[in-house]
Amino acid sequence: MRKVTLLTLAPTALFLMAGCGFSGSGTVVPTAHSSGSAPVSSQTIPTTNSSTPSSSTTPTSSVAPSSSASTITTTTGSPSVSNASVTMQAMQDLSKDNTGLPLAYPSVLPPPPGPGFGYLTATTHANTTSWFVQLLDTSTPLGVNNPTIASHLAPPAPYVGSWGLTLLGTALPVTTTPERAGVLRSQNPLWSASEAAIKATGSSKVSVGNNGATLGATVYTYNNTGSTAKIMWTEGNWTIAVVGSTAANEQPIANSIVDYLHTHYLPPYPGLIMVQMTSPTNAVTRIDWIQGDQLLYVATRQPMSTNPIDAAAMVVHWTGYH
User: How far apart are CA 161 and CA 134, in angstroms?
Assistant: First the structure.
């Protein structure tokens, strides 16, 4: 296997960074972090998604890939003025950095977890080999990259999510399946080498999904106990794992992911979806995929039972920015 050289930020920084190196004028002030109305523009933005389903089996559903129009929505389907303005301002700020890197964004963002939350804003971070956008919840309306964002993060869950791109090293291209798998795992902070299949103390076969979406999966257990388990399966070039709890707690989350991906489309590239349970019913998610010499990712940080679907929807609605 060839050694891979990456030009990247540390994976934990990509996933955990709340915001530093603020720049930009911060002139766009978002409205409350809740559903609104009206799209941001009538312009249609080309998408990098393919009509190829994530599974090698063609879905029987008639649901087609979503439109790539520049309307920004929450995963509840309601267009949001604040989400649209924050996303477009973030992409505009990144375009001013002139890094030469391609830009993209999810035209669907995670919804707020419930009433009482504050205002959505973002910080952008870029250099010559990577960029990312950090979505944040603040107690007062602040524009993108406002230098006072760090002082106004809204409890209890200010880190909403993020998305970004990193160039892979070109000296040793990532071309083989093992090389791609190694890169995806090394860059995804929810992947744990201690929970690799070779370190499992037990395994069993299960079905995940419901009705026509049912797939075969493996449950790995560790330390000779069922209290630490991983449900893992593949769909086409994608590997999906739910970790951090018992198999019984992970199963409903796994079922919901399979059901969603049965009728929606992931990019036709090698990818890894990692779902970390934070309680018996809630989870956070990080998704990475490789497109040519680029590693792309999205993350959703607010622990909810719908969190993995929110993250998958961001990838399904991945849209090029020009």
Answer: 6
